[in-house]
Specification:
This protein is of the alpha+beta class. Helix content is 19%, strand content 47%. The radius of gyration is 34 Å and the shape is elongated.
Length: 139
């Protein structure tokens, strides 16, 4: 009989303990927060700008290209340094024969200088020609 009477008391005690723990958790100073008086975070403004680039690349085997800036995607680390990849409309000169080509290039931008290494597909022999060089950005 004692075991039957002790069980409801045990349940009642456990419930009281849980209520006590929850009250302490919700009323502890670490959880109590006042109104936030800090100013709202400033919103970043979308910055659109036009940028041009002209460059020259070569591979030192009777091949060079005059490049102009095309569409690109870059990861800017700060206002002076970024890396990315892009498409470069170019005039590719191979052994004295000039033809317009679209180069695909990784690029590194430092201030107004662009270091790039475009690759051009040559459909005549189904090969890729890699060049490397430098360019200048206009803002």
């Amino acid at each position: 009989m004692n075991a039957a009477k002790a069980e409801p008391f045990y349940f009642y005690g456990k419930g009281l303990f849980m209520v006590f723990v929850l009250l302490i958790a919700f009323m502890s100073p670490g959880k109590v927060q006042a109104q936030d008086t800090a100013p709202a975070a400033e919103r970043k403004v979308l910055n659109l700008a036009l940028e041009g680039m002209v460059g020259i690349t070569t591979n030192a085997r009777n091949t060079f290209a005059i490049n102009v800036g095309g569409p690109n995607i870059r990861l800017k680390f700060n206002s002076n340094f970024s890396i990315g990849a892009g498409a470069l409309p170019s005039l590719l000169v191979v052994k004295g024969q000039a033809e317009p080509k679209l180069g695909l290039a990784p690029r590194v931008d430092y201030k107004n200088l662009v270091f790039m290494a475009p690759a051009y597909h040559r459909s005549s022999d189904h090969s890729w020609t890699w060049t490397y060089g430098i360019g200048y950005k206009f803002h």
